[in-house]
Structure formats: C-alpha cells, structure tokens
Amino acid sequence: MSRPARDLLWFLCASALTLLAAAALNFMVDPLQLFGPARLFAAMYSPDSRMQDAGLIRSQDFDTVFMGTSLAIHFRQSDIDSLLGVRSLKLSMTGSNSHEQSFVLAAALDRHPGRVIWEVDDWIFRDAPEVDHDIYLPADLYRRNTRGIAGYLFSAAMTRESAWILLRSIPPLRPAVARLTNGVMFRFPIARVDDINILRPDVALSEAYNAGKARAAFADITDPAHRRYLSDGYDYEAMVRNFEHDAIGLIAAHPDVKFDIYFPPYSILQWVAMRDASPATLRIVYDFSAYIGQRLTQFQNVGLHDFRAVADVSHDLDNYADVIHHSPAVDLKVLAWLAQGKYLVDRAAPLRPLAQLKAQVAAYRLEGMER
After folding, report:
1. Considering only CA atoms, which of 347, 339, 344 is closest in space to residue 86?
2. What pLDDT digit, counting tens, does each position of 238-252 carry?
3. Is 44 exposed, middle or buried (0-12, 13-18, 19+ CB in 10 A)?
C-alpha cells in the first residue's frame, strides 16, 4: 500500500473514531435527556423551548401539560402545580404557531397525561410552515427516529455541550465552569426545570410592565407606517382550517384527556388598535372567536375559559409590557381563575364573553392617550 493510501486510511479511521467518541459522549451525558432523566451528571436545561421540549417530554414526570406562546412562557411550573394541584410540564414556545404547538402536544400526550392547559389566541392559527419544513423545530427529535437520533448523537454542537456538562460535574472545576454559563457560550445554562424561561430575578417589574410602555406600543402599531402588522396573516378560512386540523383534531383524538383552553387577557389597547387602525382584521378576529367558542363548547372534554373581557386586568395598562404581554402578577391571576373555574364559558351561551368584549372595545375612548 502506498504512503498516500495509508495516510488516507489513517485519516478515515481517526475521523471515524472521533465521530464514535463524540456519539458515545453525547449518549452518556445526554444533554437533552432524550433517553431518560439525567443520572450520571447533573441535569442542565436550555431556554430554546423548541429543542428542549423534546427532552423534557422524555425526562420529566407529569400529569398536566401547559402549552402556549410568549404569553405563557414566564409561568413557573411550581406555581402551576401549587395553584392547580397538578404535576405540570411547561412546554410553551415563544412565537409558536398552532402546527408547532399541536405537534409538541401530540408528543407529550404519548406519555398519557390527563390534562392539557392551552393558551390560545387567533394569532397562532395563521398559516405557517408544516413542522417538517419548520427550520426552528427539530421535529425528528420528537419522533426519535433514526435521523433525529443520529443527528443528535453525532452533533458537534451537542458534543461541546456534553463536554461542558461533564466538566461541570467535576467538583474542583464546577465554580470556574459555572461562571462561563451565560447562555451565549453554552446552550444549556439552566440548572432547574422551574427556572426555564422565567423572568430574570434582576428584572424590575415596574420598569418592564407599565402604562407608558403599553401606550408606546399602541402608538407604534397604529402608526400608518406599521399598522400592516395588525392585519398580517389574518385570513379567516386559513385560520379555521388550521384550527380544525391542529386543535380540534388533537382534542377529538384524545377524548380521555381534559383540555382547559383559555384566551389570554390582552390589554384593551390591542383591540382598540384593530378597531381604529384595522377594522377588517377586528371583524375577522370576532368571527373567528365566535367559531372557536361554538366548536370547543361541543366537546365534553374541553373547558373554554375567556379572560379577554376581564376589565380589572385588561384596562389596567400597568399590567403590560406592550399591548398584549402581561406581567407575572397576571400569570398568577390566570392560574387562580383556572383553578376556580372563573370565566368558564357556558356551553349554553358560548358567545356571551365575546359580546362583553365587543361592548368594551366599542365603548373605550382614547382621551388623554399620549401618541
């Protein structure tokens, strides 16, 4: 054998051994806990929910799944558990659409929880790529198929995370390695499930949530240069189609699971913005809300909770960081309302809460609003 051939052979062998070593390290450390709860090394977690949820579903014990968008991302699991008397798993994903949410929920339902708490709004049912064409959601990790497992085990990025978690487990190195944990250098900086995607402890709530920020957001989205945001993607037929496929399809396939679905308490300014700057969008939202209410109240395993007309919250602009995102104090109110069954939609009158919302939006006046 010529020397170039031997060198090539050695190179191929070394490369294969390196890949196998990386795969062995990833399997042993299992940063996502995709193969079960962490045992050899302390568990660490990523704020990237679309990736991390695949591991949480496989590694955690739960009887209740909590799903939603950024409006449900800062809830603490411990608060959900204590206020609702459940053992929950928060799978909320910022900016997620109904295709993503339904897909992740279906994976979680394979673990046979008895309850789903699902924050929904009209926005999530707009058209979006299917999960296999969604560049942000690693669908094969949820399926745990050959492509997903191979991609996970042979990932160079995951090998780096495994090496970091391994080093962090060595007591003399732990303080130095922990100081490098900043969420930029490493993707798994969180030590407790309860701390995934909560607000940082150094956030001053009065600065993050106040009427000034809500009014500024209102002025921005109603500005003629930006108001297209209010109508972007709002197509009634598409929204109904996605709702039927992603929500009704999942509910109908799991009649033994209790679904508590709730509309979050947007600030009144979100509705007024549509009223004044995009009335056609508001009509679509109203029609779609009516459709959702009538459809969901047909299912005995669904409780629909509508918090949109709770004026004590939605009209108090100090509760908001913009026109929709509410403070942690409102998170706790939402959980309390769910526990009490408050604002549960009457099956005999599914459109009553919507009528209350319409009346509030029509009556609200902007006098004194700084623009």
Report:
1. 339
2. 999 999 999 999 999
3. buried
